[in-house]
Amino acid sequence: MNADATENLLLQAMGAERASALLPHFEPCDLGLGMPLETPGEPIEYAYFPERGVVSVIVLAREGGEQVEGGLIGREGLTGQTVVLGGDRSPHLTRVQIPGHARRIRADRLREVIERDHDLQSWLLRFAQLMSIQTAHAALAYARLRLEEKLARWLLMCHDRIESDELSLTHEFLSVMLGVRRAGVTVATHTLEGEGLIRARRGRIEIIDRRGLRRVAGAGYGTPETEYERLIGLPMSREDRS
Amino acid sequence: MNADATENLLLQAMGAERASALLPHFEPCDLGLGMPLETPGEPIEYAYFPERGVVSVIVLAREGGEQVEGGLIGREGLTGQTVVLGGDRSPHLTRVQIPGHARRIRADRLREVIERDHDLQSWLLRFAQLMSIQTAHAALAYARLRLEEKLARWLLMCHDRIESDELSLTHEFLSVMLGVRRAGVTVATHTLEGEGLIRARRGRIEIIDRRGLRRVAGAGYGTPETEYERLIGLPMSREDRS
DNA sequence: AAGATTTGGTGCGTTTTCGAACGGTTTACA
DNA sequence: TGTAAACCGTTCGAAAACGCACCAAATCTT
């Protein structure tokens, strides 16, 4: 197994030499829909480097069951920020939103490797910085964007992290991610569809016009993606690729 | 200058030995109201360990001037997460919201010290983890709390970081922090005052009943504070102190 | 002391989103 | 193939927050 063999962009970007400290510890792993990768308050077992599929970090209220999405992770990064930062558990829930597969490494192994290889550590910290920026902009989005804009933002972010133009997800699901009403998602979806930006079928949304979605999302989309390119050296946003 | 001489809680909590690597590089520094400690997109010059006063990290939209507060930092921590994570600049704005004073260290010095002393680095990373949790819960607050609840949450967080029970701030200021209308703050303030939780005078809010504010803030307050205690070993929330 | 400025209080109508509910359609599976 | 479940579309009134605008009171300036 070598670095070129993985489809994880972060591993590619750090180069074969840096990645080589991790490779022996990887095991391939399916990411099944809904699978919890980290459970709030419990020790983190593995860090996952997705190669396909999308995972999200879900912020939970202590009580009352309120929740919103704090960030998305796909093949551009890894889960387990907490471990990279030296912790062993986090108050958030991390779960698979779009199925795929990953390479994973045991948390204790990752700690050992990081401890020995500070060059590698600093690469992983760079991604932790990106997640922090992403979460900060999620806060901005929740505070200032309208439902329709939040939806456009989420679709763009998700689109960046998958291959196809089609997302398998329900309105119910989106409503939880965006922290809004299910019926609200239905309406916003219609608006976007009416403008020809997406096409929605039952349990499925197809991205038709990224530019248009960016126009709708406005300033809600872009900063974390720009920072990714600056820090990692690979374009994050789809239209910036080849 | 030794660690006991500082009023910064993080420096106290890490112990004199760990802090000793930083102390020679510190210079005292006033934190004047409105002073920018980090400017978006520009190299960070100093990391600040506040001893009095409160600083906030402000998340900016690329255009349109929208902004919200991503997190608060007082004497329980330090600014310059980005530097601790190995970066040199961030897209956020960090500025003084409540005047006070701090010890500061040049960013490049901090980088050197961290590079040499990994035990110290891991302490500082621990606080980076806390800021990340705080921002995540800010996102939750913006998404799910009502104005009045957001206000209660903000007052509690600020109260934790100062000595007195009195805050010098205007409705206008709060409206920007919370990402809401100025008139909305006025109304919410009246509600809280009507319940006897605070007392508001021109440009000034006095905290009367913390318990009551916690009841209003509900699940919007608490998680980052609990985590602080778990990770740093000192109580963050006021009512948990002696 | 007079005037300018900042800050707070209030009252519109409007927009956005909510909560709850119902019914129809598609899909899954027994 | 039929029945149950999941999903979507739509409706209703209500709540929350908005933008805007105006005035009063407190404070600062000179």
TrEMBL record, chains A, B:
Q: Which UniProt keywords apply?
A: DNA-binding, Transcription, Transcription regulation
Q: Which GO terms describe its biological process?
A: regulation of DNA-templated transcription
Per the database entry, which stretches of residues form a coiled coil? none
Q: Any idea where the HTH crp-type domain is?
A: 149-215
Query: Transmembrane segments in this chain: where?
Result: none
The record's annotation in InterPro entries points to:
cNMP-bd_dom_sf, HTH_CRP, RmlC-like_jellyroll, WH_DNA-bd_sf
Recall the GO molecular function terms of this protein's record: DNA binding
- Can you say what this protein is called? cAMP-binding protein
A Pfam entry, by short name: HTH_Crp_2
